[in-house]
Batch of 2 targets.
Target 1
Amino acid sequence: MTQDPRPEPQQSPAKTILRALAGERQPVPPIWMMRQAGRYLPEYRATRAQAGDFLSLCYTPDLAAEVTLQPIRRYGFDAAILFADILLIPQALGMDLWFVTGEGPRLSTVTTPGELAALKPAEAIHETLSPVYETVRILSRELPRETTLIGFAGAPWTVATYMIAGRGTRDQGPAHALKQADRATFQGIIDRVTEATVLYLSAQIEAGAEVVKLFDSWAGSLHGQDFDDFAVAPARRIIAALKQRHPHVPVIAFPREAGDRYVGFAKATGADCVALDNSVSAEWAARHVQTDGCVQGNLAPGHMVTGGPALVDATRAIVRAFSGGPHIFNLGHGITPDADPENVALMIRTVREGA
Ligand SMILES: Cc1c2[nH]c(c1CCC(=O)O)Cc1[nH]c(c(CCC(=O)O)c1C)Cc1[nH]c(c(CCC(=O)O)c1C)Cc1[nH]c(c(C)c1CCC(=O)O)C2
């Protein structure tokens, strides 16, 4: 009996997003959209009403999978992003979390050594988060073969800003204040979230996530050495730990509003792709960021509200600016509830058909 000793030929991954993340330039960039499952879609609002509230939606795997699939059915995006929230980690560490309609998230706070000591150990998160892993398992069965499944978590700095303030803040003042007043407690919070995030993203990958993304929505308020210590260093730690366990799973990092600190961010953290917000121009980012590898972004989400020729022109300009290298088309931040679903369709047509 002869056995063919040749290994399987190395093929580039078929899914367009995985090809972009592997550094491949494509004639048409793959596309997905931050907050693509959200309140601008009537079918999302219906499922959310069925769940009762936002957190029940996050923790009910069948319904969370359903809202993840809705924008895939409607638009055929190249990727689906797991439906969950970055604030599930603080909750899994033992903090209270609730959402006030029209206002946003509220949490119990952690600002003292005693409150830090009272947080659960990172390994305890799976008890709370196992429904999220079940959502991932459902999605990896139900998504079309060509659609990439993206898992995610908040980056430690951004998650810590909510844990310290107990809510969203304009300038992340309470977190900056704790960083100055009690460095050890602040660093302890960052470290606990970092450890939990490694375990959380690993579990998502083991359940079927093919790519993971780290959302550092408030990275732009870190400057100088603080940016290195609290945006770069935690991302580098998380990515190194993930690459050790899952070397072939690409990581997208989103240090939102990092400005000129986007330059070199992929190299410094080990990320396979840097997601760009719309405060940087695509031409600038093509020259200074895309030279290191894949970039994602960066249409202003306001175009999903206003539409028209301005949407088409801005979309084309971004596609053109990034056409020389690997690019995943996306918005620069999440789509807002007042967006018109027709404008999303127009954006996708413009990217795919050059319409
Ligand atoms: C800071 C942050 C949060 N959550 C998230 C971030 C980082 C990205 C960013 O900067 O937007 C990330 C997030 N939140 C949600 C997802 C799901 C995946 C996706 O579609 O992108 C993701 C990736 C669902 C959600 N998370 C939330 C909603 C709206 C909840 C609802 O249905 O009422 C959704 C769809 C609620 C949420 N969750 C959070 C806030 C501040 C709010 C309230 C603001 C708002 O209402 O838009 C925390």
Target 2
Amino acid sequence: MRRVIAQGTFDILHPGHVHYLSDAASLGDELHVIIARGENVTHKPKPILDDRQRRDMVAALDVVDEAHLGHAEDIFVPIEKIDPDVIVLGYDQHHDEAGIKAALDARGIDCEVTRATPREQRHDDELLSTGRIIDRIVERRC
Ligand SMILES: Cc1cc2nc3c(=O)[nH]c(=O)nc-3n(C[C@H](O)[C@H](O)[C@H](O)COP(=O)(O)O)c2cc1C
Ligand SMILES: Nc1ncnc2c1ncn2[C@@H]1O[C@H](COP(=O)(O)OP(=O)(O)OP(=O)(O)O)[C@@H](O)[C@H]1O
């Protein structure tokens, strides 16, 4: 049984999220997804949807075996519990593979770190970013 971890904010789901999670699921037998706590999202505007709603929507996707709310202070706590064989970073995530791998090694967690592929736009007007969906809502409804 090869366990895989994917992670992210997942605020307002779109086909890019489904692509990332399907890509991650294809690398093993069981996909666990860690949902970032809103309080820890500091590199972009805070999510619109709360932690539990984002977790519940990710958990409802067919490719996902289990969705976990992230830890508030230590991102390695859920990883130690899940004990994955591979962690799949998103294609555009700011985390650096070597840095994560070194931190895992320092904690005695033996696991690969790899990166997912991007999903290209399939038709004009397809929105593959939560930020762009929010921009369009503001443009059309405000
Ligand atoms: C391996 C890994 C584990 C993570 N675990 C947690 C966690 O337990 N709690 C949390 O709030 N954020 C956690 N994060 C951070 C977020 O999931 C995410 O990296 C960050 O918010 C960027 O998400 P975005 O790609 O949706 O912008 C983790 C990140 C990585 C790379
Ligand atoms: N078009 C896409 N193709 C592949 N993966 C994607 C795509 N869009 C988002 N993801 C992945 O989904 C995960 C969660 O993404 P996130 O919640 O940051 O969504 P986002 O739409 O990129 O958000 P924002 O527009 O606010 O930056 C990340 O790992 C990201 O790389």
